[in-house]
Amino acid sequence: MTKAKGQPNSLEGEVLEGEEMPLAVRQRPISIQDGIGLLSVQEQNTALAERDERWRNILNWINSHMKEGIHYGFPPGCEPKYDEHGRLKAKRRDGSWYVVDEKQWQPKKMLYKAGALLLMDLFRLQVKYEPDKVGWEQLGSKAGTFVIKAVIMNPATQEALGEGRGVCAVSEKTPANTAIKMAEKSALSDAIINTVPLCAELFYPENDNPKVPPAVQPDKNNAAPSARTRTERKSVNGDGEITAAVTGPLFAAWRKRCEEDFDQRMEDQDAATKFRAYLADKAGRPVKALADWTPELAKTITDDLGLNDEL
To answer: What pLDDT tens digit does each residue of the chain (311 aa) get?
Structure first.
């Protein structure tokens, strides 16, 4: 049997030399899913530009249709905390506060169930819930603890696209039916964020917090004398020099923070050397003795450690 010109030679679509490539093959859209590293530079630019335009279009839709407090937000009491300078702060296990470097981490809004369902409708997705026995066993097989897995499906092919997990335990205030629903809600939010990359940039699942602008502070009355902080009041002696009553607690607070952050105890000599390097970085000059301290440096270190004048 003679093949028509341009007809593929095999089921895989192979075209023999000298044959015309089928139109469907020639005009297949360039896709980033082909493997960005396998495309030519021109094709890479086309695929990446198209990807960016798609995401911008979807992001505009999300911003115009999703409402804060209904589709996303943060529960009462979970708002990010800021100090008097508008810097993000967090609490350590011992109850003390420290300033968070927002270049390294920023809180995001939590995706509520209503938002997850809206995104499922936008992307034409389907969810299937099932108990996660392995996860339950990893938590110690505790009775009354529900571990639910939400699987995001393609409704046309029933292909699993992503999954997420949620956990909730029965308590006096949380009956079994409520605990199951809460675990499912958390699993759904987690699954959507794991499945749709753009959502991971915008939201966190259960129990993660967003960044919000700090509260607007009232204008200061510049004519009124400013009160000195507790650190400033006890940091200097009669000659205006910094005393060990301030530098000692500051060193102890800095050392404790470092040991907690790195989960490793510091030797005395090593801690002293690193503390001097830390002071030099903040002061912009060497700080090797009490005489090198100033009230301004003491205030800077107090604020940087997030002590909020607790010393």
So the answer is: 444 444 444 334 444 444 444 444 444 555 555 577 778 888 889 888 988 898 899 889 988 999 999 999 888 778 888 888 888 888 888 888 888 888 888 888 889 999 999 999 999 999 999 999 999 999 899 999 999 999 999 999 999 999 999 999 999 889 999 999 999 999 999 999 999 888 887 886 754 444 433 333 334 444 444 444 444 444 444 445 678 778 888 888 888 877 776 666 767 777 788 888 888 888 888 888 878 888 888 888 888 887 754 44
Of all residues in the chain, what percent are helix, strand and coil, respectively (each to 5)? 40, 15, 45
Q: What is the pTM of this model?
A: 0.54
Residue closest to 229 by CA, chosen among 139, 296, 135: 296
From the CA atom positions of the chain, what is the Rg in Å?
29
Q: How far is CA 213 from the centre of its chain?
A: 16
| CB contact set of 268 (below 8 Å; sequence gap of 6+) | none
Cβ 181 vs Cβ 175: under 8 Å: no
Tokens at 213, concatenated: 């602008």
Say if CB 242 and CB 295 are below 8 A apart. yes
